[in-house]
Amino acid sequence: MRRVLLLLLATICFVPGTALAAVPSDPRVTAATAAWATQPLYVDPDYTSLVDATQSAELLREIEAAPVPVFVAVVPAGEWFQEEGDTALLAGWLAAAHETPGLYVVMDGNTTYGVEHEIAAWAPSSSYAKARQSMSGQLSDYLEDLKVDDRYDPKPARTEPTQPYPESPSEPERFTVGKAIGNGVGGGVLGLLGGALLAGIVLGVAGAVGRRRGGTQ
């Protein structure tokens, strides 16, 4: 827990990198890319209870069996880190910092996130863990939906926050003389029709009453 708090402080007080301006300084990115120099799996020390030696070996088997290069980082993520809950953005930072084409996967124990980086492939943006599912099982389920095809454009992963769609406020209806006249005429016509109808009802009732009186005399 103490280490997670230190990570939070380090990521909140970040300074943009100079070599890769699009990738902010982040201890998770630094640690993962350093580990990937020897193997495509990085496990944060706070996650060793979830990923022991056996799980690490099984995760590496899943990674090596994939049809594209896969790089996995098991790290804390969420709204309170500098990606502000946009874990795909964190994966994009990892991809840009590592500078190697492949599928970049971030796992936090509950959800698996992934982004494609300069490969002709498609992968789900995220998948949720089943009850009591192992980390290797989560990765296996995620990679099952991976599709490799030349029709996919090998684009670099996103390294900037997505821009919210601007709201288009509805403009008030403009006043025109024609509309005013039309509304006035329409209201007048309805008023005349309503008055005529009411007058007809009154006259009809009066006539009926008069006939009844005439018949009783």
UniProtKB/TrEMBL annotation:
Ranges where the record places region Disordered: 151-177
UniProt keyword list: Membrane, Signal, Transmembrane, Transmembrane helix
Signal peptide location: 1-21
Entry's transmembrane regions: 189-209
Protein name from the UniProt record: TPM domain-containing protein
Organism: Kribbella steppae
